[in-house]
């Protein structure tokens, strides 16, 4: 089945906003085994929209159109869709009522121009939007089934998942039962993960398990999709695959599915009823900023200390120590921070940057330590190269990941691919 | 002149990476007064690429193609471009030599498959890439001039600015002298800025000044482009426009052109040879993280303290104060942090979040204060609504912007559009 995506709107076409809706739709379709073949971006202009709809209708089997369903004069999708299909726009009483309810529940009055949002091409099928006034709809243009979606990301997401993907899977004739399983890793490069997982797809002999990777430094995501006749069939296929991936990627799996690194750290600290102190230098508060905004962090993140200057850190922590970073220094900083804050754990990430201007091989030496109320202090020394920002991102992730490892009883000093000696 | 953009590559088409190259190209063209009319995204597939090139060649006057110039087998742009134009691929000795130099200077050996990068469609014009091995080139396909660019963002950017935009401006026949001036604001919504600047374009009677806005919460960027016969003409037109914008947006302009909020703060502190201490709660280290990674911040950012819990803050700062936030409390926190760290200035941003789950009208009450070595303490109380993340972003920006105002002698308590009472 050939699927295309048409993104509409001057803000997207002029680059005023980055088109994250496109990548979202494409990824969601890939997750259920559907491929996008062509993407088109056009502005709020009748002739251009018409040309885009007609061309896609000639080429594709299914087309997802994003944007242009709002109440204002530059929202043209319904009007141009009707023209492309040679049908009239007609008032959809059902959606007008739905919108009326929507405004009443919020104690607001519907403005007259919202009525435009209930004008749909004759014969089109409504795609429900439970969280907005833009009515999604499906209709045929040329030989393709078109699905019109709102530009507001959260409305698009819900409509895509609940309304459109089931229809696309039914249309594609593929087994509609499919499951996506995701693993998040830190410390392995994409080619390394790829090599480690060689042959895993073959654990499902009928070819219905597919592996994919998405590297967004410093983390890499591994995705597995499995298709089957029904949930039981999928579970039977997925179980050995998941077990094998967990075995091969091992300690490097920091979270699965919707979990995050900071989330699993917070969860474990909450389960232990434990508190945390942080000491940062070049990461500059970014480690604290990953944890602090999470609900519940107010009871866990006892204290964070940031300074770019090591002597200033020693002053703040009331520690006498040399003015250069070392594993010993990191251990002293973690122990002092833990004791000053009265916290159960403390993570200290000390960094010494290379001299000179930023460049591709600019690096930093990282000494980090984790102290616990049990008296055990773990520490490691690493060098990360790749420019100031790369070092900052890498050190933030390394610090958080070592904390995760300590909390979950895993080795803190396991070598990672991004380290240089 | 009708301009189109074709983005190629499976990683973009599948949404594995978000297509920021597209928005970058479109914005850069808009900045010089050129409009993009159509965008196409296709994967690394010969037939699809060919169709995309041929269609764009029929519709457009100029086409920018991004990606597919690398050395591997899935980099197909040169090959398909030659096919679309009905010409042969020929070895470009000049580029082969350039690549040879490139590798020699880096002490590396050129791999045989790099030779593919010097195979260009017959008759094409080289677009220099001084920082990579992908050779840009221009050629005609159909009735359009095609410009082929590398997918690596920094290579694309340099080639677009140095090689392609001058050619497009020459082709468009528009006066090639154009200047872009940008203003960054915090605290004003887009419609408010739009209203404040009404009539400013008319200060240049021939219509050659254009205003545009780009809101990326919490900041909003105002752009002015002015065209003219030459630099002197542009300067004469731009001067009154810039003066008027500065007058109307006044204290809300936090930076211009390439400057950033954190950058102007650091610059001023450096000029005063002054140091800074920070106290954060729900912003969680994000204020520190904006300043800390900047070169030179190591001599300025004396100490940052983060805690989600107010009593913990009072402990850390050795202050006796009530367990609820207030302007008085913020002032006490700023003064204590300044004195503890021995810093010239301290900013304290205290936040009390609403109870309950995250929702669109979830809010936070912010009390912030700035203490200085001159004994003056400024403070303000604000409420920001819009969900947890909105509050966090808004409070970070509000804190930094109030610090900027204090450092530059501007009123710290000026009302902003995002505040609720």
**How many structural domains does the protein architecture of chain A include?**
3
Approximately how much helix is present in the residues of chain A? 25-40%
Number of helices of chain A: 13
Residue-averaged pLDDT of chain A: 94
Coarse shape of chain A: elongated
For this structure, the CATH topology of the largest domain in chain A is: Molybdenum Cofactor Biosythetic Enzyme, Chain A
Low-confidence stretches of chain A: none
Class computed from helices, strands and strand pairing of chain A: alpha/beta
C-alpha Rg of chain A, in Å? 27 Å
CATH superfamily of the largest domain in chain A: MoaB/Mog-like domain
What is the straight-line distance between the termini of chain A?
A: 50 Å
What is the spatial order of strands in the main beta sheet of chain A? 2-1-3-8-7-6
Biggest sheet of chain A, in brief? 6 strands, mixed
Give the strand tally of chain A.
18
Q: What is the annotated CATH architecture of the largest domain in chain A? A: 3-Layer(aba) Sandwich
What is the chains' assembly state? Answer: homodimer
The fraction of residues assigned to DSSP E strands of chain A is 25-35%
The CATH class of the largest domain in chain A turns out to be Alpha Beta
């Amino acid at each position: 089945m050939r699927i295309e995506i048409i993104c509409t709107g001057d803000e997207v076409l002029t680059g005023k906003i980055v088109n994250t809706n496109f990548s979202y739709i494409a990824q969601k379709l890939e997750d259920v085994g559907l491929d996008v073949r062509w993407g088109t971006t056009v502005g709020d202009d009748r002739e251009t929209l018409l040309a885009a709809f007609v061309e896609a209708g000639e080429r594709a089997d299914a087309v997802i159109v994003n944007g242009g369903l709002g109440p204002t004069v530059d929202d043209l999708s319904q009007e141009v869709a009707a023209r492309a299909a040679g049908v009239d726009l007609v008032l959809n009483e059902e959606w007008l009522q739905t919108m009326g309810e929507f405004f009443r529940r919020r104690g607001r009055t519907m403005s007259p121009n919202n009525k435009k949002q209930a004008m749909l091409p004759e014969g089109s099928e409504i795609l429900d939007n439970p969280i907005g006034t833009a009515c999604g709809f499906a209709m045929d243009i040329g030989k393709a089934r078109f699905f019109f979606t709102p530009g507001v990301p959260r409305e698009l997401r819900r409509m895509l998942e609940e309304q459109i993907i089931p229809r696309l899977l039914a249309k594609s004739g593929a087994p509609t039962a499919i499951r996506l399983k995701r693993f998040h890793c830190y410390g392995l490069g994409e080619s390394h993960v790829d090599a480690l997982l060689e042959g895993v797809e073959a654990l499902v002999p009928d070819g219905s398990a597919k592996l994919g990777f998405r590297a967004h430094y410093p983390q890499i995501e591994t995705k597995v999709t499995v298709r089957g006749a029904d949930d039981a069939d999928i579970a039977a296929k997925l179980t050995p695959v998941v077990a094998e991936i967990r075995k091969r990627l091992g300690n490097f799996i920091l979270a699965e599915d919707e979990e995050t690194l900071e989330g699993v750290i917070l969860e474990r600290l909450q389960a232990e009823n434990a508190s945390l102190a942080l000491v940062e230098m070049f990461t500059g508060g970014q480690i604290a900023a990953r944890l602090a905004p999470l609900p519940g962090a107010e009871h866990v993140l006892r204290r964070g200390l940031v300074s770019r200057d090591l002597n200033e850190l020693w002053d703040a922590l009331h520690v006498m120590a040399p003015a250069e970073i070392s594993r010993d220094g990191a251990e002293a900083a973690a122990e002092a921070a833990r004791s000053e804050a009265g916290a159960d754990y403390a993570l200290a990430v000390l960094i010494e940057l290379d001299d000179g201007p930023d460049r591709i091989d600019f690096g930093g030496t990282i000494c980090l330590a984790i102290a616990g109320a049990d008296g055990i202090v773990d520490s490691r020394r690493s060098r990360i190269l790749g420019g100031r920002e790369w070092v900052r991102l890498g050190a933030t992730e390394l610090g958080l990941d070592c904390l995760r490892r300590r909390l979950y009883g895993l080795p803190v000093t396991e070598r990672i691919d991004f380290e240089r000696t």
